[in-house]
Structure formats: structure tokens, C-alpha cells
Amino acid sequence: MLFNNTLHKLGFSPIEANVFIVLCKHGSLTGYEVAKLTGISRSNVYAALYSLQDKGKCYASEGETTKYVAISKEELLLSTEREFHTTLEEIKEYYPVPLEANEPYITIKGYDNVLTKLKNAILLCHSHLYLLCTSDVVALLQDELKTISTEKKVTILCDKAIKLPSSITLYHRLKSPEGFHMIIDTEAVLTGDLNASSPQCLFSKDLSLVRLMRESFITELDMIQLNKR
User: Fold this and answer.
1) Are residues 51 and 20 in contact, defined by beta-carbon separation less than 8 angstroms?
2) Do 152 and 186 touch, CB atoms closer than 8 A?
3) What is the rounded CA–CA span in Å between residue 216 and residue 35?
4) HEC profile for 150-190?
5) Which of 43, 77, 106, 134 has its CA 20 to 30 A from that of 217?
6) Tens digits of per-residue pLDDT, 114-162?
């Protein structure tokens, strides 16, 4: 099922994915043989085969009986990379210029969506980032944090002493924080919880909220420094 899901992400329909996988496993097959192996009706199998041909994902071998062959793993990887590159260039070129947005608070729901928003916010940071969270959350974000830390200022308040590059400033917080709180470039905040029964977070560019969270961070940093003395 995992490869089926991957093919769906590439634009394969459920039937096309099943037909393609059978061709990958069994090699050259007639439409009748594919229908027999998949349990899908011949009309739907042939429709899928014609569609896969149009997409360049399988070839037909001409002979007494037409047989179909899936493209190789190497060809699929190359064509997918090429298509993704083209799509990325089109997004860069044609993404609509946004009108002035006035949405002070945006809610993101779902574990994967929240984690993606966190990672994107880190990578889109221009100058400095402050993060208060548990060590578990830091572990999920460490690749992105390491990437920006070579050029941007990264400060983390965390409940455990963890191994991070020297370019990241880490403060040990005795009490485990509730959820996560992030300030990006003193322009936006991201606050929420990944461990809740319904993970969600709030993203905002509201200056009052940014200022309030920044002051809270500074106060906590001052308290940590005082306790060290």
C-alpha cells in the first residue's frame, strides 16, 4: 500500500497505480492478463493502460498480441525529478502576487500540517529565531534548525540539555514547557502543541502578540541567567 500512496501523489489514479504495480512485478503483460491479476474489469484496465501510455509511464510492445511494459525504476525517478523541477519553476514564476492580507490570527490543524508549518517557518527565517519547546520537538526540527543556524541567530529554550551545533544558543529550562512557542524575525509568532489529542497551532503577525511573546522570552532568559550566578 505504501507504493500505491506514493503513486497517488504522482498523479496516478487508484486503478492506474494497481495496474502499474502489476506491470512492474510481472513484466510484459496483455490487458487481459493484467485484468486477471488485478481483478479489475478489462474495460477499466485498458482505460488505465492507455492513460499510463499517455503519461509516459508504460509502453506497448507491438506483435500478434499487444503487451504492456512499465517504465523502469530509474526512468520513473528521472521523469519524476524532471516533472517536479518543472512544477517548482512554474510555482516560482506564476504564483499570484497576493493582495494585502489582514488576517491577524491563522489556525493550522493536524499533526503533519503543524509540523510542516514549523519547518517552513524556520527555513523562511531571515535573521533570528527564538524557540521555546521540549527536547522532543527540537529533535523533530533539528535538520531545519541546523540549516539556518550557519547564517541566522537561533536561540532555543529547552527542558533538556541536548547536543546541537555550537552555532545554536541553547538554554536549559528546568520546567518542561507546555507546547511550543516560536518567534520569527520579531515579525511573527507560531504557538501550539504537537502532542495534544488534536494537534494545532496559531500563526500570527499581530505586533502586540509578537511583542508580548518577545517580552516573555526576554524575561525567561534573564531568569535563567540570574539562576546561573
Assistant:
1) no
2) no
3) 64
4) CCCEEEEEECCCCCCCCCEEEEECCCCCCCEEEEECCCEEE
5) 106
6) 999 999 999 999 999 999 999 999 999 999 999 999 999 999 999 887 8
Q: How many other β-carbons are positioned within 10 Å of the β-carbon of residue 127?
A: 12
- Distance CA(216)–CA(122), nearest Å, equals 20
What percent of the chain has a predicted confidence (pLDDT) above 90? 78
Q: What is the pLDDT of residue 228?
A: 67
Position 212 pLDDT exceeds 80: yes
The pTM for the full model equals: 0.76
Grid cell 504495480 — which residue?
21
